[in-house]
Amino acid sequence: MNPREEKVKIITEEFTENEEHADVGRRKKNSKAQRRQRKKQPPTTDPEDMVSEKSHNGSQQEPAQEEPETHLLGMTAKRGPRSLPPIPSASRTGFAEFSMRERMREKLQAARSKAESALLQEIPIPKPRRLRSPSSRELETEFGTEPGKEVQGTQQEDSQSYSRVKFRDPVRKTKSKTQAPPGFPSAEEAYNFFTFNFDPEPEELEGKKQIKGRDGSDQEEESGEELPVQGERKWFGDDGRILALPSPIKPFSSRPPLFTPAQSIKAELETLYKKAVKYVHSSQHMIGSGDPPGNFQLDIDISGLIFTHHPCFSREHVLASKLAQLYDQYLARHQRNKAKFLTDKLQALRNAVQTGLDPEKLHQPLDTTQKTINEYKSEIRQTRKLRDAEQERDRTLLKTIIKVWKEMKSLREFQRFTNTPLKLVLKKEKVDKKADEEVYEAEIQAEIRELLEEHTEAYEQKMEEYRTSHQQWKAWKKAQRAKKKKKKQAAEEDLDEETEELPAEEGPVKPIPPEPTDPAAIEQRVRERAAHSRRRPGEPMLVPELSLAGSVTPNDQCPRVEVLRRDDVKRRSVYLKVLFNSKEVSRTVSRQLGPDFRVHFGQIFNLQIFNWPESLTLQVYETVGYSSTSLLAEVFLPIPETTVVTGRAPTEEVEFSSNQHVTLDHEGVGSGVPFSFEADGSNQLILMTSGKVSHSVAWAIGENGIPLIPPLSHQNIGCRSALKRADAISSIGTSGLTDMKKLAKWAAESKLDPNDPSNAPLMQLISVATSGESYVPDFFRLEQLQQEFNFISDEELNRSKRFRLLHLRNQEVPEFRNYKQIPAYDREIMEKIFQDYEKRLRDRNVIETKDHVDTHRAMVAKYLQQVRESVVNRFLIAKHHFLLTDLVVEEEVPNISILGTSLFKLAEQKRPLRPRRKGRKKVTAQNLSDGDIKLLVNIVRAYDIPVRKPTASKFQQPSRSSRTFSEKHVTSPSPHSPTPSADFPLSQVLVRPFVEVSFQRTICHTTTAEGPNPSWNEELELPFRAPNGDYSTASLQSVKDDVYINIFDEVVYDILEDDRERGSGIHTRIERHWLGCVKIPFSTIYFQARVDGTFKIDIPPVLLGYSKERNMFMERGFDAVRSLSDGSYITLFITIEPQLVPGESVREKFESQEDEKLLQATEKFQAECALKFPNRRCLTTVIDISGKTVFITRYLKPLNPPQELLNFYPDNQQATAELVARYVSLIPFLPDTVSFAGICDLWSTSDQFLDLLAGDEEEHAVLLCNYFLWLGKKAWLLMGSAIPEGPTAYVLTWEKNHYLIWNPCSGHFYGQFDTFCPLKSVGCLIGPDNVWFNIQQYDSPLRINFDVTKPKLWKSFFSRSLPYPGLSSVQPEELIYQRTDKAAAAELQDRIEKILKEKIMDWRPRYLTRWNRYCTSTLRHFLPLLESSQGEDVEDDHQAELLKQLGDYRLSGFPLHMPYSEVKPLIEAVYSTGVHNIDVPNVEFALAVYIHPYPKNVLSVWIYVASLVRNR
Amino acid sequence: MAEVHVIGQIMGATGFSESSLFCKWGIHTGAAWKLLSGVREGQTQVDTPQIGDMAYWSHPIDLHFATKGLQGWPRLHLQVWSQDSFGRCQLAGYGFCHVPSSPGTHRLECPTWRPLGSWREQLARAFVGGGPQLVHADTIYSGADRYRRGTWGPGAPPDHRLRP
């Protein structure tokens, strides 16, 4: 029953029931009629007319107002009943007798009293009437709707208040104004009364109201269906113009100003008042801000797979699967038991009708009961139909099951074997026949009764219709006859017959009286249906039961074809691939297909996801034997709702099917090919491979019980968010598009405009979906007609190489970052350009073990690479933020002071005696190209270079005492050399060192100087090339090249064969021997602009053939300070020409979890410190590896060093400390500035550091400091600057009575007053619970006091005013060390040795490289010794031993020691020594590698390289 | 294989009652368009004109599109914002215009408007700043029913010159 019918019914009821209702209704109608009348009249308002109208109607209608009327109705409805003021009854009954004046007076009085009473009641004042929305007008016109009815109900009590209340509002206002005596209205009032305007409002308002009134009437005219065409009337009026309605378009705006825009403005035009916001530089590019942490997990549980059809199915299998399906269906139906439910419902309804009809229980009025009964009856009809259908379906299902089972049995008999264990048992449940029959009969009777009733009802209705139509027909016929008597009767009959079915508008048709119903026929029908669909009385109830109890015929009893089939099944196996967002994420194990075509997987895949899930697909793959696998089908799984979490997700079955065609040569029926059960091949069936996957997909629950579900609300900034909401795909995901409900919901939520043409396809789709039609189109287009207008296909667009290249360049993909001049045509672009890039994409997840010899390091390197990539990507946008100074270069306009100074400069000396350094102009690295940048290396001098040892010493044990002063400084050949032969013909000096600088494989060298303390004072110029020719700041920052400064000794050998020629010719060979090197990373130079100072030369612990003259000075008592040092030093000055502007660190703030107060305090502290000593480093907060700001003291906490190291020297604390420092220094060094391209300095915690096995000074220092704290030392982290590192971190310890400064990267330690300590300035000290800033006058460690308890020397962060809040540490509780696999280390050792040997051979392409095995093995034995002694005090013994063993060789070589990170640095180091450069024809080489494993995969690598030349 | 280069600049704005103006801009295209290089949206600096009322931004726009169809020709949508003396920003106008479809240099003028809001909101805007903004900003350029905004107060027309 639709609402309209209902409404009509209610109205009619009201008319009959309630007099007053009718009264009001009639009056309403009158008023309507009145209005209509008015409309036809010319719009001049004549007071007389009004009066007459009013007297005629008996009620005061304000002509122009229809809104107030409804308004008043509304008011009374709200107000409810109330007492009547005394006057109006009289005024109503006889107002024809009163004179006009009289009436007016009365009315005014009434109005006034009314107003007073209204005021007294203090009712909330309704809104001014002009604000009534048109919806309230509807309330009146659509009389009879629910609210209208309500109004009526209350109205009926006083229909008269109607007229009175109307005046209340205006009169209340007039009351204060008019002070005329009661009963005598003023002239103005009288006029107002006549014009029916009691509203003393200002003129314009009144005008507006009238306009509105007219507006209303105009609208009605517009909407009215009548056209102003009336046949008889004339077209033209008296004035000769066309008679027409006034133009509906008004010259001025009549719409009232809108004060409540929310109601009328469309949802998408909604505005939101936003406060003026202070525009903060948003930190949207920062790590972790706003972005949800991408830690979501989807659990996919694939329990198994069942084939409902498979090519290997035998005929019996086909039947079995059919049977199983039917049985499943049966079970499902049985469980729901719809028929029973409907039967019960029917029963209940019948009872209800019975009781309703029972006159005794009649409480309600008759017609309502009648209505409910009618409703019940219709419901009964519906239910009965449904029940019958259900019962019939149940019965047919049962029948089919039995039929299929019979077929199967006959098949089994026919083929004489059984393939399936299926067995159907039909259980019969006995029923009481008599009772059953009774029920059955009663049911039928009831049905018949109801049907009869219905039919009679229908019959009566039809009769009624018939009668009326018959009458009409008769009348029409009469008229017809009167008009056209000539017409033949027959023709008319014809017409009647023809148009019988047509609607009555065409002319009345002779109606046919309806047939009376025949009860017998009905009974007949009912019984037939019952017999068809219901169980016959007394028939036993059949309950089928399917079991797998049957036995399958064993193979040997089957015919050959069947055996073949079974074998084929055995050969097949199935596995599933899981595809997430159409990427394969995992796959199940391959399982063999069972004889029952069921595969059990029972695997759960936990997908850690990052992207919003868009699709989830399972692919079913089948493998036959050993041949290739084939894709059977794809199964699309829905993405679970966010409420579905693991444990709650039900296992669901998803069906799949494949369209493959398979024909088999055995008993298997195949797939997609027709087969038949009949012998003659009729009744063919085509079955496709299909099956079901049972699975469950759910969101995982995290450790703390929080489901790992990505948040639904994707916040986005700016205009994008709005776009996102309007875009269906992005707001609900692609999976939502297939889900109509979701789509409809989304459409409702986003308030799509249904009239918007761009939404049309969507709207249509939704309407189709929601109207319940089963048809859903299988495609959906967002932009219709797009395809038709494309002049190129998607594929072609994507295939374009040029576009791809442009796009990749724009994305700043490393390979294409600085690609210049992309060709305009595709054909000019080589395909191989993309090869590297594609390869990299492919190999992203493949761990290369070629470069990295051991897998753990390979993984770490990969991880670092990924971290680096992601960080770089995050900061890419930040890099594009420019300051004004980056873009605008403005030359300063010279002013008078500059002019003055420049004038003054004229008088200056051209070459002042004491020149001052002038600042160089800095160059921004934008418009540079190759060759513009040069690296300048100024090599000043060196100290304490090792000197040659005479080779003669092989014959005697070299002892220190034996060396004399004269030995070193005589210019004559050494007295120890036994023969003044070819060995030292020219060796006037002990050493002839020169320096070779190599950078980016460019090599420059100085001239050769003489003596152990040479002075070169030479400037070398090396060109600098940026990677890919990209001179942007970011690229320069990530240059990883090092500057190697190698010191060599130039040895000149006389190889003149013939002594006779000595007088006329010189034939010498120059050999060079590596002595040591200094390695300075380019990044250091870049960031510091210049590197200036004296550096310690990294000299190997053993230099064969050389010795340090260390004790000599001691003996001579000369230069006590220098004697402290045990190394060689070189003074350098390095800079870049032109000076480059180092990139600034990121200008954004990082988010933090620290207390806001603490952060403010750090800022304040840092600002104060920077004010006093701007050059000293002050560090209070650092950025951890996830990009959050962390207070620095959280990094310091006692942590256990590896037990192995502690056991080494159990009672020597100092030795243990050294060992620990050595362990720390063995962890490879990787500057953050290189890995994170100058973005920022990231601090990793010690466990992260140990896992990554790479870090910069800070990480080393933190770890070392933590170890020292654990060892019970007083230790601090020392932030300062050193050479060559620049700003760095050291560790300071307090040892009983003196301080020690530890370099964590080299493992060396220095006393506070060591002049050669690389630390040059001290900025601040950091302890586990405080930070101290150096406020002493000096910052050199030599000159400061490290006593942090003195507040005058050290400014502490936490003080009495800000006590230490007890910050928890970010470090782990304890470090866990795994023992390194010795075997792996040994293997690595061998591999490195092999690689290095190959490399050396490669570097000597023109010569034969011979390896001296004997020497190699000797060296190999020696290396472990070096490791255990840490390269000290073994030199002499070793040399002696070597010489003893090798005897006749001139040996030069040295061990190199490095921490192990990759193979490449090792190769680089070996290369830089230049051992391979020896080109003596009979040279032999020896190379040994030793790797000493430390816990946690820290490896110490020793490489011993030597070259041997046989002495003749 | 069609490629479209949009090269130009947002010159400036004139006719606003506020003085310190900046502009947020974006280019919107149909689905057939693919951005090869360039930045799709951005924001200019704040300009406070000292002479005249024209705020000059001279903000460069450089985009390179590839397209497979003509539908969804690029549209430039603009939001002019003003900054007050406290450094707070408020909306001064919305505007949009099509990128000219003929090659060459064009000077475009894009009138802008902003929602007036209720008198309460207008009052608030006059005294404490801020103002009503569209909840769905995409209707500026994507709606077929912009005409319905007749009831809203027009903003002053700025002068955005774009040279594609």
From TrEMBL, chain A:
Sorted alphabetically, which InterPro entries does this protein's record hold?
Answer: C2_dom, C2_domain_sf, CC2D2AN-C2, CEP76_C, CEPT76/DRC7_peptidase-like_dom, DUF5523, Tectonic-like_complex_comp
Gene3D superfamilies, alphabetically? C2 domain (2.60.40.150)
Question: Which stretches are annotated as coiled coil?
Answer: 332-393
Biased composition regions of type Basic and acidic residues, renumbered to the chain: 1-25, 99-115, 205-217
Biased region (Polar residues) positions are 152-163, 953-964
Taken from the UniProt entry, a GO cellular component term is: ciliary transition zone
Residue stretches of biased makeup (Acidic residues)? 492-504
Give the span(s) annotated as Disordered. 1-186, 202-230, 484-538, 951-982
Please verify whether the record's keywords include Coiled coil: yes
The C2 domain sits at 934-1094
Keywords, comma-separated and alphabetical = Coiled coil
> What ranges does the record list as Basic residues composition bias?
26-41
- Single biological process term from Gene Ontology: non-motile cilium assembly
Q: What is this protein called?
A: Coiled-coil and C2 domain-containing protein 2A
Q: Which organism's genome codes for this protein?
A: Dipodomys ordii (Ord's kangaroo rat)
In the UniProt record, what gene is named as encoding this protein? Cc2d2a
Automatic annotation (TrEMBL), chain B:
- List where the protein spans the membrane: none
Q: Where in the cell is it found?
A: Cytoplasm, Cytoskeleton, Cilium basal body
Q: What is its main location?
A: cytoplasm
Q: Which InterPro entries match?
A: C2_B9-type_dom
What processes in GO biological process is this protein linked to? Answer: cilium assembly
Q: Which UniProt keywords apply?
A: Cell projection, Cilium biogenesis/degradation, Cytoplasm, Cytoskeleton
Kindly list the GO CC terms recorded for this protein.
Answer: MKS complex
Describe the task this protein carries out: Component of the tectonic-like complex, a complex localized at the transition zone of primary cilia and acting as a barrier that prevents diffusion of transmembrane proteins between the cilia and plasma membranes.
| Similarity annotation | Belongs to the B9D family.
Q: What protein name applies here? A: B9 domain-containing protein 2
Q: What is the lineage of its organism?
A: Eukaryota, Metazoa, Chordata, Craniata, Vertebrata
